[in-house]
Amino acid sequence: RDVTGVQTCALPISGAGDVLLGTLAAALALGANLADALPAAMAAATLSTCRRGGAPHATRDEVLALLGNAT
Questions:
Q1: Which residues contact 70 (CB under 8 A, 6 or more apart)?
Q2: Which has more pLDDT, 60 or 56?
Q3: Most buried of the four, 3, 24, 26, 42, by CB within 10 Å?
């Protein structure tokens, strides 16, 4: 299955990979399957690139809103 990306900000990024893997691990630990967890992890990582460093993190609502815009 293809996973669609979205355009993002152009701030210097630090921690986007950590955010992606952390979100993916958390979603899988909560019982999500990979097909559902990966787009959420990608959205969280995308949102992290709009903020300096990996923190503050994206909220669940922000991730869901971005996923809604990507479909």
A1: 4, 5, 6, 39, 43
A2: 60
A3: 42
Q: Quote the CA–CA distance of 32 and 55 in Å, as a whole number.
A: 24
SS3 for the chain, per residue? Answer: CCCCCCCCCCCCCCCHHHHHHHHHHHHHHCCCCHHHHHHHHHHHHHHHCCCCCCCCCCCHHHHHHHHHHHC
Q: What is the pLDDT of residue 24?
A: 94
Tens of pLDDT along 7-55?
Answer: 667 666 667 888 889 999 999 999 999 998 998 898 888 888 877 655 5
